[in-house]
Amino acid sequence: xxxxxxNANQRRKARKLAxxxxxxxxxxxxxxxxxxxxxxxxxxxSKVDKEYFCDVLRGVPARKSELDEHIEKYIDRNLKDLxxxxxxxxxxxxxxxxxxxDVPYKVIINEGVxxxxxxxxxxxxxxxxxxxxxxxxxxxxxxxxxx
Length: 147
Prior knowledge:
By secondary structure, the protein is mainly α. It has one domain (8-146): NusB-like (N-utilizing Substance Protein B Homolog, Chain A, Orthogonal Bundle). 73% of the residues lie in helices and 0% in strands. It has eight helices and no strands. α2 (32-42) runs antiparallel to α3 (50-62) and α3 (50-62) packs across α5 (84-99). The protein starts with 7 loop residues before the first helix and ends with a helix. Belongs to the NusB family. It comes from Reinekea marina. Involved in transcription antitermination. Required for transcription of ribosomal RNA (rRNA) genes. Binds specifically to the boxA antiterminator sequence of the ribosomal RNA (rrn) operons. Residues 12-136 form the NusB/RsmB/TIM44 domain. This is Transcription antitermination protein NusB.
């Protein structure tokens, strides 16, 4: 068995599933371990970065308050006024900016934008892009300045 580094497509699939699972967590308020188990059983995880999926899925709820504080600095409305999809994408992106320094901030922003184009309301991608960009300039200041 080889320890291959997951490729971008496997990460993208992990983010997509994590978004769906976090949406379910937010809307149904099911326990995160139950949602994780369901997703691992109900989805073909052979082409997914399963470790990344689990890290994001466990990390966002565990650090929800901290993530929300970061997001609230840059939005012009209450968190409860965001759609569940927007909120899940912003929490995921913020979690990655804070916890996954192995992932370049531009990748995190781009992935958030792509998820919001696929699952969000019209123009949600512009909102997500703006907020994640501001968060990156705050949370990844050294990386942003180096570019």
